[in-house]
Amino acid sequence: MARAMFEYTKTVLKKVSFDATLFCKEVEKAVKRLLPHELEELRIFIQSLINQNPDLNQCLIYLKA
Fold first, then answer.
1. Which domain of life is it from (predicted)?
2. pTM
3. pLDDT for residue 1 is more than 80
4. DSSP assignment letter at 54
5. If you ran DSSP here, which 8-state letter would residue 35 be given?
């Protein structure tokens, strides 16, 4: 089940990556939902999205906590 949540989170983040505000809200939700080892994978995934859209960089603050 947890893996399904991780995949769902990635899908949602891809879809909202056009808007940094929405993206940050979804990242914040993901941090609350996902398991600790999944957060490291999420950080790598988000870094690839940031390479395509640098405006999303502000959302990394939620992953540092």
1. Bacteria
2. 0.88
3. no
4. G
5. -
Show the DSSP H helices in the chain as ranges.
2-15, 20-33, 36-52, 61-64
What confidence tier does 64 reach under pLDDT thresholds 50, 70, 90?
Answer: confident
Contact between 65 and 28 under an 8 Å Cβ cutoff? The reply is no
Residue pointed to by tokens 């640098």: 54
Dihedral angle, C-alpha 50, 57, 26, 41, nearest 10 ° = 60
> 58 by DSSP, 3-state: which?
helix
Tell me what pLDDT residue 3 has: 85
Tell me which long-range contacts 26-30 makes (C-beta under 8 A, separation of at least 24): 27/59, 27/62, 27/63, 28/62
Q: How far apart are CA 39 and CA 18, in angstroms?
A: 21
pLDDT confidence tier of residue 65, bands split at 50, 70 and 90: low
